[in-house]
Design goal:
Layout (H helix, E strand, L loop, with lengths): L13 E7 L2 H11 L4 H4 L1 H5 L10 H16 L3 E6 L2 E2 L8 E12 L4 E10 L4 E11 L7
Antiparallel strand pairs: 1-4, 2-6, 3-6, 4-5, 5-6
GO biological process, one term: fatty acid biosynthetic process
GO molecular function: (3R)-hydroxyacyl-[acyl-carrier-protein] dehydratase activity
InterPro entries: HotDog_dom_sf (IPR029069), MaoC-like_dom (IPR002539), UPF0336/Enoyl-CoA_hydratase (IPR050965)
Length: about 140
């Protein structure tokens, strides 16, 4: 496991994570949150919409940001806040890249500030925002 203190975090630190959004991802996410929306689960319905097919849940993509932040900052970080602006759909089968970059920190308060972006393989941004995290690992842990 990765343990990072706020003092070790540097402005410009970055984590990039790429994956393909699968049918299984969307179905499992639907089961976890209990949202049975046809835009996500019914191909015939979704094909008739402006998206032309089933799309991933927006908050599912937000969850991928959380996973990327954990890879960036380690197990000693926790969300304080996250803004998200949804810019476009993610269809099943799309390759996405999550990019998280540290833009600032407040060592006294143990806070780290990160820009968060999700883009598709063609480079189009589908989600962007900012995160604030609190670092609770101190020197000597574990």
């Amino acid at each position: 496991m990765k343990y990072v203190t706020v003092e070790q975090v540097q402005v410009g630190d970055r984590e990039v994570w790429t994956r393909t959004v699968t049918e299984a991802d969307v179905v499992m996410y639907a089961g976890i949150i209990g949202d049975r929306g046809p835009l996500h689960l019914d191909e015939q319905f979704a094909a008739s919409t402006r998206f032309g097919g089933r799309i991933a849940y927006g908050m599912q993509c937000g969850g991928y940001i959380g996973a990327t932040l954990a890879n960036l900052l380690g197990v000693g970080s926790a969300y304080v806040s996250q803004t998200m602006r949804f810019r476009g759909p993610v269809l099943i089968g799309d390759n996405i890249t999550v990019d998280c970059v540290v833009t600032g920190k407040n060592e006294e308060r143990g806070r780290v500030f990160v820009t968060t972006t999700v883009s598709k393989g063609d480079g189009s941004v589908v989600l962007e925002g900012e995160a604030e995290l609190v670092m609770f690992v101190i020197d000597g842990m574990p």
